[in-house]
Amino acid sequence: MSVLLCLCTCPDEASARAIADALVEERLAACVSELPGIRSTYRWEGQLTHDREIQLLIKTTDARLEALTSRVVALHPYELPELLAVEANGGLAPYLAWVAEQTRIDD
């Protein structure tokens, strides 16, 4: 099982908190860190856009990614939310085991 770091931006604290709480409570993520105060620059509908956002750092496993993706899409206020998953190539073994345990699917 691979541990993943997922990146997701949110427009405000309320949506960031709602997504973080749901993902952890539903065991789709072991931990979600909120990084406020980022500024995103992107093109949307043909316009250059600058937005203040909150970056979520979501720690999960590859086994939970599909369910996590569905949940983020359901909860997120954006029409097209950012969700990128990056595989952890290493890390502190006990922490990686903790992520796996916290996101384990109960039978």
From TrEMBL:
Protein name per Swiss-Prot or TrEMBL: Divalent cation tolerance protein
Record organism: Lysobacter spongiicola DSM 21749
Any Gene Ontology biological process: response to metal ion
SUPFAM superfamilies with a match to the protein in the record: GlnB-like (SSF54913)
Cited Pfam families: CutA1
Family: Belongs to the CutA family.
GO molecular function terms attached to this record: copper ion binding
Highest taxon, organism lineage: Bacteria
